[in-house]
Specification:
mainly alpha; 13 helices; disordered C terminus; 280 residues
Amino acid sequence: MTAKRRKKLLGKAGLYTGLTAITLLLIFPFIWMVSTSLKNKNEMFSATPTLLPKHVTLENYYSMWFDYNFGVYLKNSLIAAVSTTLISLLVATFLAYGISRFRFRGKTVVFNLLILTQMFPLPLLIITIYVVFARIGLIDSRAGLIISYCTFAIPFATMMLKSYFDGLPLELEEAAAMDGCGPFATIFRVVIPLSAPSVAAMGLFSFILAWQEFMMSLTLIRSPQLRTLPVGITLMVGFRDIMWGPLMAGTVVVTLPVVVLFIYFQKYLITGMTMGAVKG
């Protein structure tokens, strides 16, 4: 083996060793969370902690579901996340296509306003949103929560999809028009299928934004039957005690759908975000 080949193999071995160490470091909190959720109280607070539970138990998941009204929170989060995703994709797709393909007065102003919405953090806007929603009667309602999520998801999705649409060949849409397709048929039969990676990426972004959001839900929702998962989990943290078992079980349930969706859509997410970022 030549010195050059040996050096190359050592470099690859070092690279893979480093990547493996970083991966284990990143997934360790999730492994510990799952392990803790399957332990009983005695093992959880043992003086000698163990990575894997000696006696697997589902009592924490039982307590999470029945003692803390977790099913209601799960239903509310699913409704909010799915509704936000569908509404954001529908509005952002048509808005992005209109900005990309049509010329109209104020086009630049509209796009600059979309960019402007991304410059302000949520804590700066939440008081204004609360005051406006209170005046129009959207406090403590699912509709108000979904609308608030869409106000953050739609501008970002529109900008990314617009950049992607700018890179699509206009000749494909002209050919579809010659074959008798109207504007809506062209969008649904040509544009959206070609933009599947970017649309999937924006759908995943919108879902995760609504699924894990805490501050807006805590501010706008008052009724216990309308709380979402992130707010419901905080109820397991008391003034004098923290219910670590149900808390870890609830966190696993909240995290697992996002992990599964990300693994399933990761190729679309990477492709969509990359292509949307470099075109336009």
